[in-house]
Structures are given as C-alpha cells and as structure tokens.
Amino acid sequence: MAVPAWSRWVPLLAAATVLATLTAGCTVTVTDPPASTPALSASPTARSSAPPASPTATRHCSGPLAGEASACYNVADANGAPAGLITDISSTDWGTQWEGGVFEQTLAADGSMAATRRPPDTDVILHNPTEVGLWDRFGFHLLATVRNTPPRQVIAMDREGKRLAWMETTSTQVGFDDWWVRYAAGGKTVTLASSSELGLSRDDFGVDAQISLVGDTVYWTSVYREKAGKTDSAAILSKNVNGPGTYRVLATDAFMPVSNGHGTLFFLADNGPTAAIKSVVPGKAPAMVTPQACVHGYIIAAMGADATHVAWAVMPDPADASTPPAAYRSWIYVLDLTTSALTEVATTSDGTDGIPVSGGWMAWGNGSGNGSGREFLMNLASGAITLLDDSPGLSEAAVNYPTVVWREEAADAGAPVPLKTGVIVGG
User: Fold this and answer.
1) pLDDT in tens for each of the 427 residues of the chain?
2) Does the domain formed by 7-424 have CATH 2.130.10.10?
3) Domain range list for the chain
4) Would you give the end-to-end CA distance of the chain in angstroms?
5) pTM for the whole thing?
C-alpha cells in the first residue's frame, strides 16, 4: 500500500490498554542536523494553577526545531514531586473478573477515563460481550453493552462527559484492520460508519486507532481510496452523531485528529514538502496553526491540545537506517496559541504515547522507549518538570487539570499495571 512520502503509521497489535499511534514524517531539507538528545479531553474551563511567570530556558536548544524555540528544557533536570504538589493519590481498582483497558488520554477533571472490559477467556482472543463505560478510582461504570458477530475489540476511544465514541475491529493482527465507528449516549448505541462503506477489504488497512469526539461530530482516520480504486492515501473522516447519510472527508493525507476539549479539532496535514498542524471547528473550514511541524528525517509521533496550547512530539524516523537505534531521541514542542511562543522539551526516550495538555500543565510517558519507562508532569509557565514514576513496559501519563494520572510498575510480570490518580494543588 502506497502512502504519501511524509506520512507513515505504526500499527498496534490487539492489546487492550494501549492506543495505536499514527506518525507523520517530514521531508524538508536540513543542512546541519541537530545532535540527538520525545482524549484527550481538556478541562471544561481553561483554569490553571500555574504561576504567571514566563518560561526561562535552562538548557541549550537541541531539537530539529531549535531555531524557532524561545525556551528550551530537558527531562534531565526533572525532580521528584515536591511536597504538596500532588495530593489525594490513589490507585484504580481494576477488579479480578474482567479483562480490558483504560484510555488515559480521555481523562476528565473528575478523574474518570473512557474504558472497555469483557469477561476473560483463555481459549479465544475476542469474545462477547464487550462493555464500554468509564473507569475511575472507584471502579468501572457501565454505559453500554455491545455484542457483535463475529466478536470485535475496541481499539480507540474518546468521550465528552458520558458520551462515548469508539472504533471496533475483528482483527487481532498487526498491519490490517476492518473497522466500525460506534457512538453511545443516553442509553443508546449506534453505528456511525464502517470500513465497508469505503469499499475496502481487511488487507487494505494499516492499524489505526485515532478517533476524536468534538461536540456532535466524530472524527477518525482511515486509509482512503482516492483515484481509480487505488488505495494511496489516508484521510480524516467525520460524521455528525445526529445526522443522516454517510461519512464526510475532512482532509486527505491527514492524520492524528485530536480534540482540544473546547470544541476544536487539531490534526496533521500534508503541506507540500512538510507536515502542517491545522485546526477546525465542526461545520467550518480548517485553519492553519503552524505550517512546519518537523523537518526532514524526523516524524511526528504524538499530539495533544487544549484551549491555549498545542503540543507534538518529534523523533528521528526509525525507517532511516543512518540513525542507529541507540541515537533515537525525541523532543516535545509546545506552541502557545495566544503568544505564538514555541517551547522545546528534550527527552531521553524515542517517543511518547500521548501528550495531554490542560490548564497550563502537560503530561507524558516515555512509552518505555530506549528502556526508559519514566513519566512526567510539566508546568508550562514555570518550566518545572516533575518525575512522576518509572513504569517499564507501560509508561503513560495524562493530565486534565486539576487531575493527573500515571502508571506505576507492576508488582510482578503477571500482575496488572497500577494506575495512580492524584490532584494538582501546587505549582
């Protein structure tokens, strides 16, 4: 399957707890490459406990967009959480009678997250029923039960309050998927779209687990037949949850639809030789946010946004054989949508699973890249980076001010990975 030169995606094996990540590569020329040094729901209001101080760079800028950054930081300067920064810390009770997963990036300010579960079965991977709902520190709260023939699994979720949107697939393989887009609200569950509407077979699909709910519109990414039945592109599709008819195409050669939790979608789009970040309000035309989000030899691995910031992770393209695996590092860039100031954060990992941004704070996990399972919380105003924990094998963190969640290393190899929840009270 051919895809645009700047775009590529990483498929996900059918594990329950991790979101697949679309990645977009850029192909503009760099004459002097830098040395190597990594739901999405925002809070209902743009509150912040971050102090109003302007960021002060603590280290030399080193990333691929270093020339555009006005402040630069490094996770090497991270410290443990100071006393009083995070309180009311607890662990989520997964229970023992179910298997499934939680989607941390759908974290709400009340500590709940979109989730799915089903009864365990050692004989088959997929089986009925599947329950979808919300996890919080008190357990699972059922919102809908679905049964499909053949059985499917949930590979992506987003939510606004108790309204849920998700993607299902019958596949348990890496590299191809069929899909259905479902929506549940007010006790009713409907199918909004399916891959069969595009005339595509299972073999046409790269695994894609990107979906966002913005108001009454659901956005998701799929391979898309553009010309003469040839599968040569990816597109962001959309459907109004109340509207009749079929899906709409927001943009072709487009990836990573991310809701900012305030009625706007951000996404990556082709922009000639590079990748741009654009935004769109449902029913309106897309607007340019930044025309060049990375440079030649690098890919965009994750993105997050709230009402005032958009963040994205840039890392060396793993398909480039000239970059040895030991040299893989990533940088996070944060664009202030009010001042247009760009902040760089150098990490020690080769990627992140997501970069939730909310109320002046940003959280991320290393995804165990380069053997690092560290998870971080950053105050965007002061630049202070807090090391939350180290969870090898499953390193994820999310923030929706004032709530923050992160993984804690499991007690043993067969035990569930604990998910910690806390409340930010200091700055």
Assistant:
1) 222 222 322 323 223 223 323 345 563 322 232 232 222 222 223 334 443 333 444 557 889 999 999 999 999 999 999 999 999 999 876 666 677 789 999 999 999 999 999 888 767 888 899 999 999 988 899 999 999 999 999 999 999 999 999 999 998 876 667 899 999 999 999 999 998 888 776 666 664 579 999 999 999 998 877 644 555 578 899 999 998 888 999 998 898 999 999 999 999 998 877 889 999 999 999 999 999 998 888 888 899 999 999 999 998 887 776 666 666 688 999 999 999 999 999 987 766 778 999 999 999 998 765 567 899 999 999 999 999 998 887 888 999 999 999 998 877 776 777 889 999 997 6
2) yes
3) 7-424
4) 48
5) 0.85
Q: Is the peptide bond before 402 cis (omega within 30 degrees of 0)?
A: yes
